[in-house]
């Protein structure tokens, strides 16, 4: 059996082993997938040992995505743009390939839930690693406009500049965000700490979609806030999680598992 894993710290709550085990069963691929907690002090050495001992590939999560980016011996273009790696694959030639499937996962879920993004006005909240990771794939869809809004405005402005070659994109502070958007994506970590995001409630209207890249039992803090202010469609990040996992699986095994049934099972099993 080929071995795969998700590496992070902490990692015990990861749903990736559950998701990939369902994918393996569905596609009849002979593999095992486990969660491995790596230490912040010895991340590179421990990862080297894992691959030396037969690991074929892994997903990478908090806090190691930037270190995995530096550790990979070759990078896909989308990983290079993201500045972070969430998927490593040991190729048959012994090359450690770094990829980033987060943006593709977001797009796949948005296509399912919202439809085409071409011509839409999109606000992206946050300017950290999560926002950077999805910007290039979002811009390839040719939205009319992407505005990045962040608590620290300078980071949003810088990020917009970094991606300005790919489309119409601006950066601003959260409290400066104004206009009529078709889609607001929350890529901040505010929901994690239970905080609402300081944007104008007038941004929310019934005909838009609100997407939180986080998920939680019950509605996320952002999605709850958006609902209370009149958003009809609020979507959490569980679909993105399953879709990015399917992209990683496809990179490793050359076969793309279906996500719908896995999504349903995961919602039922974890009451999400
Ligand atoms: P990640 O890898 O999840 O993106 P990160 O790189 O630490 O993590 O970025 C966290 C993002 O969430 C940042 O955009 C941060 O805003 P700042 O750049 O101003 O720090 C944003 N964030 C975190 N807590 C927030 C809060 N309570 N309200 C608004 N934005 C918040």
Features:
alpha/beta; six-stranded parallel beta sheet; 10 helices; 272 residues; six-stranded mixed beta sheet; 12 strands; binds 2'-monophosphoadenosine-5'-diphosphate; single chain
Beta-strand percent range = 15-25%
Radius of gyration over all CA atoms, rounded: 18 Å
Question: Structural class, from helix and strand content?
Answer: alpha/beta
Helix-strand pattern: EHEHEHEHEEHEHEHEEEHEHH
Rounded to the nearest angstrom, the distance between the terminal CA atoms is 31 Å
Bound molecules: 2'-monophosphoadenosine-5'-diphosphate
Query: Portion of residues in helices?
Result: 25-40%
- Which segments are poorly predicted (pLDDT under 50) over 5 or more consecutive residues? none
Number of helices: 10
Strand segment tally? 12
Shape: globular
Reading side by side through the largest sheet, how are the strands ordered? 2-1-3-5-6-4
> If you average the pLDDT, what whole number results?
96
Let me know the largest β-sheet. Answer: 6 strands, mixed
């Amino acid at each position: 059996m080929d071995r795969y894993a998700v590496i992070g710290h902490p990692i015990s709550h990861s749903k990736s082993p559950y998701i990939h085990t369902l994918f393996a069963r569905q596609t009849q691929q002979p593999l095992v997938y486990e969660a491995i907690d790596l230490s912040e002090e010895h991340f590179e050495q421990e990862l080297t040992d894992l691959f030396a001992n037969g690991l074929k590939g892994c997903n990478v999560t908090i806090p190691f995505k930037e270190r995995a980016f530096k550790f990979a011996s070759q990078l896909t273009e989308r990983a290079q743009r993201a500045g972070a790696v969430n998927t490593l694959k040991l190729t048959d030639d012994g090359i450690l390939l770094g990829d980033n499937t987060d943006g593709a996962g977001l797009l796949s879920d948005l296509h399912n839930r919202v439809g085409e993004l071409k011509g839409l006005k999109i606000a992206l909240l946050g300017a950290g690693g999560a926002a950077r990771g999805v910007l290039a794939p979002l811009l390839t869809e040719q939205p009319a406009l992407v505005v990045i809004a962040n608590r620290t405005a300078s980071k949003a402005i810088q990020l917009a500049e970094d991606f300005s070659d790919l489309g119409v994109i601006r950066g601003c502070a959260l409290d400066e965000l104004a206009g009529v958007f078709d889609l607001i994506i929350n890529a901040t970590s505010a929901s994690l700490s239970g905080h609402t995001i300081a944007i104008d409630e007038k941004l929310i209207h019934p005909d838009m979609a609100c997407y939180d890249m986080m998920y939680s039992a019950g509605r996320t803090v952002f999605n709850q806030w958006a609902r209370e202010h009149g958003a009809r469609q609020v979507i959490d990040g569980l679909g993105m999680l399953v879709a990015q996992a399917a992209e990683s699986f496809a990179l490793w095994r050359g076969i793309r598992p279906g996500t719908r049934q896995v999504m349903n099972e995961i919602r039922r099993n974890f009451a999400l």
